[in-house]
Amino acid sequence: QVQLQESGPGLVKPSETLSLTCTVSGGSISSYYWSWIRQPPGKQLEWIGYIYYSGDTNYNPSLKSRVSISVDTSKNQFSLKLSSVTAADTAVYYCARTRDYSTKYYFDYWGQGTLVTVSS
Amino acid sequence: DIQMTQSPSSLSASVGDRVTITCRASQSISSYLNWYQQKPGKAPKLLIHAASSLQSGDPSRFSGSGSGTDFTLTISSLQPEDSATYYCQQSYSTPWTFGQGTKVEIK
Q1: What chain A residue is nearest to B47 in terms of C-alpha separation?
Q2: Which of A61, A107, A110 faces B95 most closely, judged by CB atoms?
């Protein structure tokens, strides 16, 4: 059974960089896409971007200038960096495995989520 | 970006009722549509992918249909454990986007 676990600081100061890591267990990170998704308190889900195990990335244009996703296949981990954060970036951040079913993508395994609060 | 609009935003139904949630895309997305169930304090859980493919192990009372711009998620006989918020999500083109959610409550 594939499991994902987010880790990183729960509090980030405005203008600083949010950094999270997702550790994948129970399966290999290879041959899949991996996404970050966030959900501000009481609001809907927002896809941040994905990375393929080979390193190819695709980001949401609304965040593209501030976001970077990387992968470390040796550790079975992928990471998110979001720079110049503001209070609007306060959210629960999820990592998720992204399956490709004949080019139809979907999120089949999710981490439990981690709340990141942006505040001084 | 493709906008996903769900209706209703919330509903209350009795155990055993048939429940239908609608999701409309701002442009045609073929069958690139997924449904997720989210319970309070938990991560979303995939229910249906590619508009109508039920995830293995999920109850057959859940079904999805539609193509193009209009989609539905149907719960044929509502159970107490189905109390949750349901989201649709398109994967036709990036940025992948979600609906605003439909909260299902049990009367």
Answers
A1: A108
A2: A61
Q: How many angstroms separate the CA atoms of B40 and A75, rounded?
A: 31
Nearest to A4 by CA among A26, A24, A27, A29: A24
Assess whether pLDDT exceeds 90 at residue A29.
yes
| Cβ–Cβ below 8 Å for B43 and A112 | yes
Note the pLDDT tens digit of each residue in B60-104: 999 999 999 999 999 999 999 999 999 999 999 999 999 999 999
Q: Would you give the DSSP letter of residue A64?
A: T
Q: Quick check: A44 and B31 CB within 8 A? A: no
Question: Does B44 sit within 8 Å of A61, measured CB to CB?
Answer: no
B94/A58 Cβ within 8 A: yes
The pLDDT value recorded for residue B107 is 94
State the Cα–Cα distance between residues A9 and A21, nearest whole angstrom.
Answer: 10
Q: Tell me: the pLDDT tens digits for A35-49? A: 999 999 989 999 999
Find residue B88's DSSP bridge partners.
B35
SS3 percent helix, strand, coil of chain A, rounded to 5, is 0, 55, 40
Q: Which residues of A touch B67 (CB under 8 A)?
A: none
Looking at residue A108, its pLDDT comes to 95
- Spatial CB neighbours of B56, under 8 Å, sequence gap ≥ 6: none
A2 touching B (Cβ < 8 Å) = no
Q: Span B10-32, mean pLDDT?
A: 97
Q: Which two tokens stand for residue B75?
A: 């719960």
Joined together, the tokens standing for residue B102 give 């439909």
